[in-house]
Amino acid sequence: MKAYDLIVIGAGPGGYEAAFEAADLGMKTALVEKEALGGTCLNHGCIPTKSLLHAAELYRQLKEAGLFGIRAEQITADGEQMQAQKNDVVAQLRKGIETTAAKKKIDVYRGTGTLLENRCVSVKTADGEESLQGTHILLATGSRPALPPIPGMDLEGVVTSDELLERSEKPERLAIIGGGVIGVEFASLYAALGSSVTVIEAMPQLLPNLDREIAQSLKMLMKKRGVRVMTGARVQEIRKNGDGSLGLNLDGEDPVEADLVLVSVGRRPNTENLFGDNGQPAMERGRILVNTYGETNLPGVYAVGDVTGGIMLAHAATAAGRNAVRHMAGMPPCADVRYIPSCIYTEPEIACVGMSLDEAKAAGIQADSHKVLMTANGKTVLSGAERGYIRVVYEKESGKLLGAQMMCERASDMISEFTQALVSGLTLKDMQRAVRPHPTFCEAITEAVC
Ligand code: NAI
Q1: What does the alpha-carbon distance between residue 188 and residue 50 come to, in Å, rounded to a whole number?
Q2: pLDDT at 413
Q3: pLDDT number for residue 145
Q4: Which of 101, 228, 274, 396 has the fewest Cβ atoms surrounding its Cβ within 10 A?
Q5: Which of 162, 181, 219 is the pocket-test mutation for ligand 1 (most atoms within 8 Å of CB)?
Q6: Which one, of 210, 204, 431, 224, lies nearest residue 348 by Cα?
């Protein structure tokens, strides 16, 4: 049995970054992964989606470039090349992780890891089985798409984001069940490529976990781009039509006809085959329960990322993984996980951090907010970007920043300035002191905090 200071099961952004941190701290580390290194984020999630979204955005911009005096004709979207480029990007980043793991002398085991009692891990590989013993264990096995119990879910043409990401041909008519983060990003992607898209969301608004104003603005924008948005709508069943297309029967609405159906109604933690006898930590509704350090109820066994439920975001998993390793090493956390920014790569982008005004008021805080429209922002106007806005939420008396919600160009980059301000406990006055360059999108932050 090989002994390690840390055995990480799952090599997504929670697991591999934790393994890197552990190796940097001098811990003898093993990383167990049954598929490709990089996890959902790199192989079936953030990176491939953003690569395709980037291509779709470029396609739309080129078609509208006449406004800037750029004349281009016969612009076409080549689905095969978009796939090839996406696959190259993924391969390049995966290579980077493999090289870094090797440089840091991390032992990578390619197989399925199962946690047994007393921090023993068995790894089933193509060649047999390995037995490992860890002083610490980190479970970072991620999540997979959840499938609702709707009749017809198993029909051909009903897919999750995993399968949709691998398709090079665009559907004429795409129906999306679930108007959450995945649903709106794919709606944005396929609308830009020219598909006729319908989003069916069960709750009264798109992105139910986000601020109402953001959801309303997004709904308007989607409609402007030709996307049909149905909120408060539930799919009863999916059926195959005689011509091979799919029909979605809804509760109290006319059916929706489609050539392809994307199901994006959330994700479920991956814990199948993860535990042997006496190896299972306390769980609740499929997720592993952890404390603020990522510790489970089993001594020395930690868990981070999607497998623990909560905020299913790559950067949240990375931060939690690095903090967990530092806790194992008796060190203070390196990341302040109270403020996890959330970014949605629609066009324009959406980004939020901290509290919305409604959340602050619900928490009993005397709060107010200030909104600045991007209509007068020079960079927005000169680049022909969608207008959008930035809203800041602050404590009335002290002026302390409580949160920010943005829907504008480069929101996913600019949100970090607000995250830094929240982590540092800054007031709007503090934020006013920074001189921001002109002309930039971020100079609108100066206006927003004045
Ligand atoms: P989600 O939880 O964001 O949204 C699922 C949506 O489906 C909800 O709005 C829910 O009300 C709706 N829904 C559930 N059952 C339904 C039904 N039967 N009919 C119609 N609507 C129904 O989940 P999503 O979009 O699948 O994303 C999964 C996870 O991946 C999320 O936790 C998200 O944070 C993460 N993710 C993050 C991204 C980003 O940060 N840019 C991008 C993609 C995913």
Answers
A1: 11
A2: 98
A3: 97
A4: 396
A5: 181
A6: 224
Q: What's the pLDDT tens digit per position in 349-393?
A: 999 999 999 999 999 999 999 999 999 999 999 999 988 999 999
Question: Could you give the CA distance from residue 104 to residue 29 in angstroms, rounded to a whole number?
Answer: 9
CB contact set of 256 (below 8 Å; sequence gap of 6+): 175, 198, 200, 230, 247, 248, 250
- Is there an atom of ligand 1 within 6 Å of 197 CB? no
Greatest C-alpha distance within the chain = 68
* Integer Cα distance of 190 and 235 in angstroms: 21
Rounded to an integer, the average pLDDT of 119-141 is: 97
Of all protein residues, whose CA lies closest to atom 32 belonging to ligand 1?
A: 312
Distance CA 6, CA 28 (A): 6
Among the listed residues 293, 13, 328, 48, the one whose alpha carbon sits nearest the alpha carbon of residue 141? 13
What pLDDT, on the 0 to 100 scale, is given for residue 252?
86
Mutation to probe ligand 1, out of 43, 265, 346, 350 (largest number of atoms < 8 A from CB): 265
Structure token digits, residue 44: 């079936």
Judged by DSSP in three states, 341 sits in: coil
- pLDDT at residue 386 in the model: 87
pLDDT tens for each residue of 161-186: 999 999 999 999 999 999 999 999 99
- Ligand 1 atom nearest to CA at 178: 7
Beta bridge partners of 235: 250
